[in-house]
Design a protein that fits this description.
By secondary structure, the protein is mainly α. It has 3 helices and no strands.
Length: 83
């Protein structure tokens, strides 16, 4: 392989890895941004709707997504608090 091409390939790989780390950090920051109060408030609203019998299939899925996100946020906040 041409030395110039090898150098360009090496630089491209380094840049790709750096960008990947930045994207991962941005995703994690977005997850932590979703605070517990907002998510629990949304889940409580959907629980009230369930008690009223107004919870359809899409709202059940939305509730499940909120619960999953809340679990994920609590795990991430525990991990970041120990660092």
């Amino acid at each position: 392989m041409n030395p110039t091409d090898a150098f360009v390939e090496e630089i491209t790989e380094i840049e790709f890895n750096r960008n990947e780390e930045e994207r991962t950090q941005v995703r994690e920051d977005g997850i932590v941004e979703n605070n517990h109060e907002t998510l629990t408030g949304q889940i409580e609203k959907l629980d009230e709707m369930k008690a009223d019998g107004a919870l359809d299939k899409t709202r059940k899925q939305k509730k499940r997504q909120f619960e999953d996100r809340l679990n994920h946020v609590t795990k991430k906040t525990k991990v970041t608090s120990f660092i």
